[in-house]
Specification:
Elements lengths: L1 H18 L1 H5 L6 H4 L2 H9 L8 H7 L20 E4 L3 E4 L11 E2 L2 E4 L12 E3 L2 E4 L8 H18 L1 H10 L2 E5 L15 E5 L7 H20 L16 H5 L8 H23 L5 H12 L14 H4 L2 H20 L18 H7 L2 H9 L14
Helix pairs in contact: 6-7, 6-8, 7-8, 8-10, 10-13
């Protein structure tokens, strides 16, 4: 993945040079932090959608200048009249001292207010349709910072190999309060994570799952940045149902491929957490529910494709490897496939809904008798 990052950095350097040679001269061209800045990706991708002036590029990059210059803020104020300047802080309109500093946890920046370049990426979405292109939402980072930090530290301690990849591909996270804006990443803001929260559902396990899930999207964006190395077809613009004849499947092939990759990374991490017996009581109950939720998310259409028509040899090898690894881990936990009632799960797993159909008290009783001990050959199977 490092090699891919170097390629991406080089592309950004060329784009910056073409846009503003003088701006590039003010930057340390050896710093990967600069050339993997999500707002820089957003700026160049927004050029095809809106008319942000090129002055905004200097505004978002000025925090990375090698020599300090007078602050310039004109086009960076968001709908709350707050300007986010990367690597410097947050400014209220008319003020030139930051009222909030940059906040990082485990090298992941918690974005407290969005830059206006990011607004277009937040919309309400349901089963392939945008239901509200301009929704309301508020930053709620302060309410969830402790839970986020605990989740990051847990993943770092117990899934260290994954976490190194996660840190390499993910730079920033924005936490808001609109659950109709489904959690997502975008290659157009590469390295950025966007999470919704609700008072009841945003548990420790929620953050663990979404850090793995959404973080893995950014990892795969890096791995498959040159899509022609993996696909013979135009995967982002080929709809699954056109190939599989499954009328419900509105996904594009590239998105479905992301699906199997993120299922694998979740299973991989869940397996480690269970082997190490890291989580207890309600956290374990939720972990097992979320693991069981991976069964219906596996083999949802990609297995129906003609692999030789869709993938290059490299892509086919990666797909088959992911498929085999998913199947292996799911087989280990096959007892969970029909253990829980997931019938009230819509798009996202939500623990408060899960508990309505899956008694926590019943779980505790079965767990006490070893039913959920998957690593002891003498485990109870009743």
């Amino acid at each position: 993945m490092k090699e891919k990052q170097f390629n991406i950095e080089d592309i950004l350097k060329v784009l910056l040079y073409k846009e503003s040679p003088k701006l590039l001269e003010k930057l340390d061209i050896e710093s990967n932090q600069i050339f993997l800045e999500p707002l820089c990706f957003a700026y160049f991708n927004n050029k095809k959608h809106s008319s942000f002036p090129n002055k905004v590029l200097e505004e978002i990059m000025q925090g990375y200048f090698t020599q300090k210059e007078p602050l310039k803020i004109e086009h960076s104020y968001n709908k709350n009249n707050i300007a986010y300047v990367p690597n410097i802080g947050y400014f209220k309109k008319g003020e030139f001292e930051p009222f909030e500093p940059i906040l990082e946890i485990e090298d992941i920046e918690v974005v407290k207010e969005l830059h206006p370049l990011m607004h277009r990426y937040l919309f309400e979405f349901y089963k392939g349709h945008i239901t509200n292109p301009n929704p309301d939402y508020e930053s709620v980072w302060q309410s969830y910072i402790a839970t986020l930090e605990k989740a990051l530290k847990l993943l770092k301690e117990h899934t260290s190999d994954f976490f190194k990849e996660f840190q390499s591909a993910n730079r920033k996270i924005f936490i808001h309060n609109n659950p109709k804006i489904l959690n997502f990443t975008s290659i157009e803001t590469l390295g950025m994570l966007y999470f919704y929260t609700t008072q009841k559902s945003s548990t420790l396990m929620y953050f663990i799952e979404e850090l793995i899930h959404q973080g893995s999207h950014n990892i795969l964006y890096h791995i498959t940045f040159d899509k022609k190395d993996f696909f013979k077809i135009d995967a982002p613009n080929t709809i699954m149902r056109d190939l599989t004849k499954q009328g419900w499947d509105y996904r594009d092939v590239y998105g479905a491929f992301h699906g199997v990759y993120t299922v694998y990374r979740r299973l991989e991490c869940y397996d480690i957490l269970l082997q190490k017996n890291v989580l207890k009581e309600k956290d374990k109950h939720e972990l097992l529910g979320r693991l069981a939720d991976q069964f219906p998310r596996f083999h949802t259409g990609l297995e129906l494709l003609n692999l030789d028509e869709v993938y290059t040899e490299k892509g086919k090898t990666l797909y088959l490897e992911l498929d085999k690894k998913c199947e292996s881990i799911l087989n280990k936990y096959s007892r969970l496939k029909n253990e829980f009632d997931l019938s009230n799960r819509d798009l996202d797993f939500r623990y408060e809904d899960f508990c309505k159909l899956n008694s926590y008290e019943d779980f505790l009783e079965k767990d006490k008798h070893g039913f959920y001990n998957f690593f002891d050959i003498k485990q109870c199977t009743n």
